[in-house]
Amino acid sequence: MTRGAFAGLLETLTGTSGDRLAPNARYTENGQELPVGDGLWATADRVGPYVHRFVDAEAGTFACFTTLLEGRTRSHLAVRAQVAGGTIREIEAVAARPELFGTGGAFGDGPAELDKSGAPAPEWSAAVPQAQQMSRDDLRRVANQYFSGLERNDGQGDYPFSDDCLRIENGFRTTQVPPKPTEGRETPYAEDFRALTARQQFETGYFRFVDRIRDRRFPVIDPERGLVFALAFFDHSGTVREYDLADGTRITGAVDRPFSWMIAEGFRIEQGLIRRIEAIMTAVPYGMRPGWPLQDGDIG
Questions:
Q1: pLDDT tens figures, 205-224
Q2: DSSP assignment letter at 291
């Protein structure tokens, strides 16, 4: 049943029956509020097998990255759910469907890559030794440093990456990938750039075209595993068309029109450094709002 696939995901995610919804449960899909039962509730035919789950037991908040099949369309999906009193009160979905990137998708068939992997890397689920566990505030601070370093990136910031930090975006690894023929696969960055470490990429100043990163929310924080699940919007004004990299090289950017990315992003943080990143993003109208209010610790 199409309705059962999304409810089943919520049950897997929260450990609470997907049918146990609070009478006033609120649902948004890509920032748009919809009645429960509409959108993915009606169109999701199958989710998984890739499911990357984040749990904040203290806040009663859950999130995951997964893959989604709607008819013949295979997409990425991030879901956040809030549980209180044994019922699901909030459901927020970010669906990155391929048609939103244009023909073929700017990232190729990322969902297939994730499903092929079967599961997130084991580093994500390893417990952090108690003596090395960071506070919730410190985990949020480090995750926010990622956004601050990317916003108007000039290569001069404090970039808290471990040397082996790996980033996955819409199913594809985008750091420390040895250059090789793409075999027709479209990727978000040039091959030589993807070969750099996460810190080296930020130090180039390449991402200066990201004018603003706003509505930074951090709903899931797990100190035992050093995890943060965040949501944000990356605004591109389309006016940063030519700029200098940190080494003085003048380049022409690829963004010449206004649009925003709606992004869900997960971080694994160890000893103050980001070691793993997973993100999905979907294009939305420039300046679009999230549909959810900021909470304590969030950054507008």
A1: 999 999 999 999 999 999 99
A2: S
Q: Which residues pair with 261 in a beta bridge?
A: 234, 283
| Type of residue at 236 | H
The residue among 110, 113, 68, 115 whose CA lies nearest residue 93 is 68
What DSSP state is assigned to residue 2?
H
d(CA 5, CA 3): 6
Write out the H or E segment, with its range, that includes residue 83. strand 73-84
The domains of the chain, with CATH numbers, are 2-284 (3.10.450.50)
- pTM value surpassing 0.90: yes
Contact between 215 and 233 under an 8 Å Cβ cutoff? The reply is yes
Cα–Cα distance, 113 to 151 (Å, whole number)? 28
d(CA 72, CA 48): 15
Q: And the tokens for 9?
A: 């995901």
Tens of pLDDT, residue by residue over 79-102, are 999 999 999 999 999 999 986 444
